[in-house]
Amino acid sequence: MRKFMAMQILSVVLAGLSFVAAAQVPEAKPAPSAADVQRMQWFKDAKLGIFIHWGIYAVDGIDESWSFFNGKIGYPDYMKQLHGFTAAHYDPQAWADLIKRSGARYAVLTSRHHDGVALWNSAHGINVVKDTPAGRDLIGPFVRALRKDDLKVGLYYSLADWSSPDYDVFTRKEKRYTNDPVRWQRFVSYYQGQLRELSQRYRPDLFWFDGDWEHNAKEWQANKTRDMLRSDNPQVILNARLPENGDYATPEQGPPIARPSDRYWELCLTTNDSWGYQQRDRNFKTPTQVIGLFVDTIGMGGNLLLDIGARADGTFPQEQVDILDALGQWIHRYPQAVYGTDAGVPKDYYNGPSTLSADQRTLYLFVNGKPNGPVLVKGLINKVVDARLLGGNTSLKTQLIGNSVNIPGLLYIDTAGQALDQHMSVIALQLDSPLKLYKKPLDAAAGS
Ligand code: GLC
Questions:
Q1: Which part of the chain has CATH 2.60.40.1180?
Q2: 34-333 adopts what CATH topology?
């Protein structure tokens, strides 16, 4: 009897424990539908997009929108930049060609930032067609040039518009109103009207929302916005800054250290420290650093959205052009290790970034610099049929040690004497079957 009671108590305690354990496990995200997987396919395969910030903030070379919001410059002075925004040397085909050369498969242009200045001839609000010397639509020609180069079209759009008389927030210190549902509804109708124009005029493949943090999904009427855009284009992709309605996560300015739990994600990253053109910002990343960030990102299953800032006349600083060209030359040397791949193996197996071919039979190892000895891979259950440096035509010497019936050993790959890539070399490991990783902890292995 006692024993029975004790067992009952024990099972209650255990049930409690398993409940606690279950509660601590992060909730698994529901698997996307087959239709959504198909809709997201081009995005997943693309790996690289180019982000372009272009707006009146390039005239003085100051922070996009934030400079007046944070009081670094008065609002009237900020808006004076309208007079200097000429787009005089804007060559959308040259933009598209640069994007194509970079190896990107899509681009995202700021159609309207938080300052409310639209790059197209909107029926609502401030725009560059009627309010600046540029005097023409800047989005249409960009969209056409991208399509000509077979690139997907993304449009950035800030939900917040700090210039709009119907928007509640004006600057960090000033609000226009609180709690005025009629005025707020006017704003929502305004922003949704602008989105409808963008959606129907340019038919973008992707909307890149921003500026959502001042209101919640309900206030933005985000479901309605999504339904409207999907009814125009059922295939359209939306980032997750349209709260509760997005297709993919958007970490910003730093590669995640561990692989994000999101199935789809995209790291947006500046080439120097600014999103828009700022002549005083000389802190450019080197091509090797950008390539390193790129492979780190795709190795964890994400895309990189690399940002450049156009000058007010529509040209780009040479440093940014050079970074895109170097990245493109590198990608075009190793396209099979980039496009259409999946995330590679965790760092426990290879201490660097890696990707996996879609058929899971080739593992691509990215090797930074000149390795100080052989490259090491652990825990591969598969047999390695061939190991070679991409770009070279000889097989690399390998050595397998500590291999037993149940436990795959350590695979050493020798790159000594090989011509390595000055930025990042790629080793392709050809496997005899789809990748299988050994996962048992040591104690379990010892007993098996
Ligand atoms: C931030 C900033 C914005 C920038 C964006 C790009 O949300 O507010 O200025 O355009 O990041 O991701």
A1: 342-431
A2: TIM Barrel (3.20.20)
Return d(Cα 62, Cα 37) in angstroms, integer. Answer: 40
Rounded to the nearest angstrom, the distance between the alpha carbon of 443 and the centre of ligand 1 is 48
Pocket-forming residues, ligand 1, beta carbon under 6 Å: 64, 210, 252, 268, 275
- Ligand 1 center from residue 105 Cα (angstroms): 21
Burial 243-260 (b: 16+ CB within 10 A, else e): bebbbbbbbeeebeeeee
Q: What CATH number has the domain spanning 342-431? A: 2.60.40.1180
Span from the CA of 65 to the centroid of ligand 1 (angstroms): 9
Residue closest by Cα to atom 5 of ligand 1: 210
Model confidence pTM above 0.90: yes
Of the candidates 430, 424, 431, the one whose C-alpha atom is nearest the C-alpha of residue 333 is 424
pLDDT tens profile 294-330? 999 999 999 999 999 999 999 999 999 999 999 999 9
Strand partners, 249: 265
